[in-house]
Amino acid sequence: MTLPSPTLLWFRNDLRLADNPALCRAAETGAPVIALYVLENAAGGRAPVGDAARWWLSRSLQSLGRDLEARGVQLVLRSGDARTIVPDLAHCLGAGLVAWNRRYDPVGIACDSAIKADLKATGVAVDTFGGSLLREPWEVKTQAGDPMRVFTPFWRAHQRLGEPGASLPVPAVLVGSRTPVPSEELASWGLEPTSPNWAAGFAEVWSPGEAGARARLADFLDAGLARYPDERNRPDLASTSRLSPHLRFGELSPVQIWHASEHAGAASGRAGIDKFLSEVGWREFSYHLLFHWPRLAQDNFQARFDAFPWRTDPAGLAAWQRGLTGYPLVDAGMRELWQTGWMHNRVRMVVASFLIKHLMIDWREGEAWFWETLVDADAANNAASWQWVAGSGADAAPYFRVFNPVKQGETFDPKGDYIRRYVPELARLPDSAIHAPWQADDQVLKGAGVRLGVTYPRPIVDHAVARARALDAFQALRGRDDV
Ligand SMILES: Cc1cc2nc3c(=O)[nH]c(=O)nc-3n(C[C@H](O)[C@H](O)[C@H](O)COP(=O)(O)OP(=O)(O)OC[C@H]3O[C@@H](n4cnc5c(N)ncnc54)[C@H](O)[C@@H]3O)c2cc1C
């Protein structure tokens, strides 16, 4: 008896078995399934997965590999150029079908289009699906059929399209290949740092993989959703879902989140679910922007910002990266990032504003640092958010809104617990001094063991002076035309 031609299932940003349309399609064929992950080469000077996210990827692939193996399917690992690896493997296996869930970044789209054309030209069928978003980025548009630039009407139009379809179960039956396919060893990819192992703290905080994602969602819906509208800006509390790295690698889909939240919402109340899903909506909006403006991570969305007089300040950039600016909330955020690969959204906004406005360093420097240090570093969310803070983006915060890091700390970390957690050299300061130690009496500093300029830096810029400098620079841009 001749076996049906196998199906090659290419995993990318969808490292899960549940609600995975490409996997369902592969299962439906009844043919043997061979799963593939390709560690792709750097493109445009940037690795497709940043340093901290590589740690996550390593753990997530281990988890996916185990889950597939338990169902008799091999996860084949290859590294290099997907444009040659995928067609070569498909031909070598005699695959009748290659299936994948789409991606939306320009490098990914160009690569996938080329592979699809190549496969089709050689008689291999290709099926692609939407699996990372609630709606495909081109589905939401203005009445004139154009892409949208403002979040609120975007989200309204998105919601008018109706509920997302049902979330797909893990296929009941998957057929694996009887013959093992040569695969590279995950360990040989060196995804996890060793000397030094700067990711040592990550495993204490995170459980990469589909099971970890599901558990985190369940915990949040149970304990966090009802409090989310009131507490989501508080970095000192476990106030948000922390699902972002799971979403980044597609261990969970937004469709699953949507249905689970709607289900839990009955008990938690409408306010929590609406606010939470609107944040997931910001992720949809970022992807919409990246899809329609593929140079979102490179070019100012508003061209008038091209004339902005960014400063070159290597010492300021290094102090910011290392969490040594002398502003406790900024330093706590940058150290949370270093220690855990993640940072609370409120603090992301404050540290980004500090880099862009207090130091007047180009937002692209910040975007690049986050790309390498965040476990959730995401081509769409990172670029759109940096441009949002800079004021150069679509529907962005106005440039003249300069966060005061002291006031932000007093409002959102009122007792200084978050600062104490990540800036331990300030831990013994009283609440009244922790947000601005340079304003404290000598006696207070001494009592807390703080020696400014020795155990903790003095502020590298004065807030009022830096604010005025940034506003002057912005004033000069006024009157220039937007894109
Ligand atoms: C300068 C800057 C850079 C950022 N870079 C990234 C990034 O690389 N990757 C990333 O996923 N998010 C990024 N964000 C957005 C946001 O900070 C994170 O998504 C959020 O902190 C993740 O935590 P959470 O999962 O607990 O969020 P929750 O508040 O629980 O929200 C649930 C989900 O909604 C989405 N979401 C929430 N807020 C936003 C937002 N403002 N924009 C887009 N999507 C959002 C995320 O997918 C998140 O997981 C950035 C924000 C800023 C200000």
Name some characteristics of this structure:
single chain, 483 residues, alpha/beta, Serine Threonine Protein Phosphatase 5, Tetratricopeptide repeat, DNA Cyclobutane Dipyrimidine Photolyase, subunit A, domain 3, 3 domains, 6% strand, binds flavin-adenine dinucleotide, lyase, DNA_photolyase_N, EC 4.1.99.3, chromophore
Short description:
The chain has 483 residues and is an alpha/beta fold.
Largest sheet: 5 strands, parallel
Q: Secondary-structure element sequence?
A: EHEHEHEHEHHHHHHHHHHHHHHHHH
Task: Say which CATH homologous superfamily of the largest domain is assigned.
Answer: DNA Cyclobutane Dipyrimidine Photolyase, subunit A, domain 3
Radius of gyration: 24 Å
Give the overall pLDDT as a whole number: 95
The total tally of domains equals: 3
Structural class: alpha/beta
Q: Which runs of at least 5 residues are low in confidence (pLDDT < 50)?
A: none
Per CATH, the class of the largest domain reads Mainly Alpha
